[in-house]
Amino acid sequence: MTTDPTRHLRPPADCSVATGIRDAVAEIAVVGDLVVSTTGLLEAAVTHCLHERPLRVRVDLHAVRFMDCAALTTLLECRARTRAQGALLTVIHPSPAVTRLLDPATRLALGVGVGVGVGQDRTRLLECLACAALTEHVPGETTVGPDGSVLVQWWRCTRCPEGNAAG
Ligand SMILES: [Zn+2]
Questions:
Q1: How far is the CA of 132 from the centre of ligand 1 (A)?
Q2: Which of 34, 40, 56, 119 pairs as cysteine with 67 (C-beta 3.0–4.6 A)?
Q3: Which CATH number characterizes residue 37's domain?
Q4: Chain-wide mean pLDDT for the chain?
Q5: Domain count of the chain?
Q6: Tens digit of each residue's pLDDT (9 = 90 or more) over 117-137
Q7: If residue 73 lies in a helix (H) or strand (E), which one and from where to where?
Q8: Can you give 8-58 as a three-state secondary structure string?
Q9: Which domain, by its residues, includes 165?
Q10: For residue range 15-53, what is the model confidence (pLDDT) as tens digits?
Q11: Domain termination site, one of 68, 83, 112
């Protein structure tokens, strides 16, 4: 009997991971479904980046269509590994599929927009790519779905003209 375990798995969910590193900042962009069957891609990307000894690792999740709890666990493990090497891992531009999973403590741990809330002060500390820093953002345009519900709230950087982050 053959025991090739991969033959018994369903085709992996559709996911691709791209990495780049510049000026000690590694950026990992995930596109597709970040789920239990694809978290290995993220882990491999983080391992690859850590070989380059970055100071920051930014995981861009704006194109993640679906994320499950296993992926969240992996993300937090990757953050711990990054921290053990003296670097900081943060999530940038989380898609709604990602933010849905994040409780306030996890948001804080992953550096995702702090100070959120209806009726509170409407600014958020978000990562601005243009500024390459956490900056104050104010609500900007919204992307609205066919039924009129807000799909994406964009946040505008207050320190530069081009910073636009999905909150
Ligand atoms: Zn900016």
A1: 7
A2: 34
A3: 3.30.750.24
A4: 85
A5: 2
A6: 333 457 788 889 899 988 888
A7: helix 69-84
A8: HCCCCCCEEEEEEEECCEEEEEEEEEECCCCHHHHHHHHHHHHCCCCCEEE
A9: 113-167
A10: 999 999 998 999 999 999 999 999 999 999 999 999 999
A11: 112
Residues composing the chain:
167
Query: Could you give the CA distance from residue 128 to residue 76 in angstroms, rounded to a whole number?
Result: 22
- Tell me, in angstroms, the distance from the centre of ligand 1 to residue 163's CA: 4
Judge if 118 and 93 occupy the same domain.
no
Summarize the chain as % helix, strand, coil (round to 5): 25, 40, 35
Distance CA 84, CA 120 (A): 35
Question: For the whole model, what pTM was predicted?
Answer: 0.62
Torsion sign over Cα 60, 111, 124, 136: negative
